[in-house]
Amino acid sequence: MIAKPLKPKRCKAPGCRSLFVPRSSWAKACSPECSEVIAAQVREKKARQEALEDRRVTKEKLSALEPLAKLEKRAETQVNAYVRARDHYKRLGCVSCDKPWDWVGRWNASHFRSVGAASGLRYHLWNIQSACWVCNQIFSGRIADYEPVLVQRIGQERVDWLKAQNKPVRYSREYLERLRAIFAKKTRRMLARIKEIP
User: Fold this and answer.
1) What is the pLDDT averaged over residues 108-115?
2) Are residues 54 and 81 in the same domain?
3) How would you classify the pairing of strands 128-132 and 107-111?
4) Are residues 141 and 192 located together in one domain of the fold?
5) Same structural domain for residues 59 and 83?
6) Do the Cβ atoms of 109 and 84 come closer than 8 Å?
7) Residues whose CB falls within 8 Å of the CB of residue 38, separated by 6 or more in sequence, listed in order
8) Sign of dihedral through CA atoms 110, 113, 115, 120?
9) Cα–Cα distance between 62 and 67 in angstroms, integer?
């Protein structure tokens, strides 16, 4: 049986691309020089992939060395950004005073139960409301004024539940990293919604 002649192919070497009749179906280059260029390209691609993998492993190792307190703070920063965006979208003013939602000063995310008193509520959305920086930082949240407004927003039953939570909680690295990623996405979506408001 006579073998069928192979059809001409384009050389895969960058800069060549000339037509040639291959000796076998797997041939990619028209000459030994072009074969070497293709092999060098494959080696370079493999080296790049290995470098990327090394960087990924190094990043994971560094992340494992990062202090837990830093991860907690980064997660809290992201949750707080979401709370500020959420309350702006809902047009809720300061939880502790009469400043309206469109006040042009600096807004904080204020905790009803402090992180020190109830670490298990640090990231709980019922426990965090937008407040002006004056109430939150200078007057420590004005909790006496905060509570009645919080009852209006989430209901007495939920406020009572928040008050009953006193068990300290330690968060894992995986939980904190996942929490930060989730709230980064939620914040982006909420900010996009705000832009759509006429």
Assistant:
1) 94
2) no
3) antiparallel
4) yes
5) no
6) yes
7) 12, 13, 28, 29
8) negative
9) 10
When divided into structural domains, the chain yields a total of 2
Predicted pLDDT of residue 62: 63
Final residue in a domain of this structure, among 41, 65, 89 = 65
Which of 9-23, 85-99, 121-135, 144-158 has the lowest average pLDDT?
9-23
Note whether 85 and 168 are same-domain residues.
Answer: yes
N- to C-terminal Cα distance for the chain?
A: 77
Rg (the chain; Cα; Å): 30
pLDDT at 3: 62
Query: How sure is the predictor about 155, in pLDDT bands with cuts at 50, 70 and 90?
Result: very high
Asked whether residue 45 is assigned to any structural domain, the reply reads yes
Residue 65: predicted pLDDT: 62
Helix (H) or strand (E) holding 56: helix 32-65
CB count within 10 Å of CB 68 equals: 12
Residues 74 and 61 in one domain: no
Q: Give the per-residue pLDDT at 186.
A: 96
Find, among 188, 19, 197, 167, the residue nearest to 101 by Cα.
Answer: 197
Q: Range of 148's domain?
A: 68-196
What integer is the mean pLDDT of 176-193? 95
